[in-house]
Amino acid sequence: MSRLQVVSGKGGTGKTTVAAALALALATEGKRALLVEVEGRQGIAQLFETEALPYEERKIAVAPGGGEVYALAIDPELALLDYLQMFYKLGGAGRALKKLGAIDFATTIAPGLRDVLLTGKACEAVRRKEKSGRFTYDYVVMDAPPTGRITRFLNVNDEVAGLAKIGPIHNQAQAVMRVLKSPETAVHLVTLLEEMPVQETADGIAELRAAKLPVGRIVVNMVRPALLDETDLALAETASRTAIAKSLSSAGLGGARRGGLAERLVGPLLQQAGEYAERYALETEQRGVLAEQDLPLHELPLLSEGLDLAGLYELAAQLRKQGMS
Fold first, then answer.
1. Cα Rg for the chain, rounded, in angstroms?
2. Residue range 121-139: average pLDDT?
3. What phi-psi label fits residue 3: left (phi over 0), alpha (psi between -120 and 50 degrees) or beta?
4. Which of 34, 140, 277, 313 sits most deeply, having the most CB atoms within 10 A of its CB?
5. b (16+ CB within 10 A) / e for 210-222
């Protein structure tokens, strides 16, 4: 597995949930994973039922087998202060600039610089080593912007072309791109089995490939359980109402008399079967579109009890079973 795992997806597909579950899956058996948030929504803190994340790496979970998951919410203003200190040794002057609003102005007026800072912080964590020579983190998982922005966000080299041709900013962007376009990185796309998310996923994959960014896998989230197979659906379409009523009666659902409970249940059951058949056909079609992308495909179930911390660990276990660890 690549050491930098970038997770994107259309809004509403659960990309933050998948990123968190992936971090847990990767951190098993004593591994250490860093889960990075770049959008300032504090979604990771909510998932792990902890307080808002500061701009520092904090352990938030222990994975099966003794692994550890750390998390970091990257603040672009504070990242710029780090950058100014690292390259220009501004220190207190940088903090004075922040008080004057210059830092916020810089990260707002130059979105390319903002993306360099956000991706640069994650890439620094990927490259960081301890004194022993071991990498500080075995994996870094980034909860990235949505699919519609992911290629531009990651392609920071192009973004800063208009900002700096040479110098530290240019060099930083080049260093970031060396990581992002290397086998160390994989960009995963999260989707639902619905037309719009699947189409956005296909478009996102095409854009990433055109930018020569490494596409990883597709994760289909919130997959509902299969209730009927094709044989059952065909039977529901062809069986007579009388035969269905008799079957219900023999199963103990009302008597066989005309107008009884069994006969009254036939209409609602056929309506539900018809609605399920429409959904089944739509999902089958969307699976076909995803299969055309020629990428490994994983599926995570819709949790009937809703998503809590236990559910997050359950999703992590599903990803491990499917080879995403």
1. 25
2. 93
3. alpha
4. 140
5. ebebbbbbbbbbb
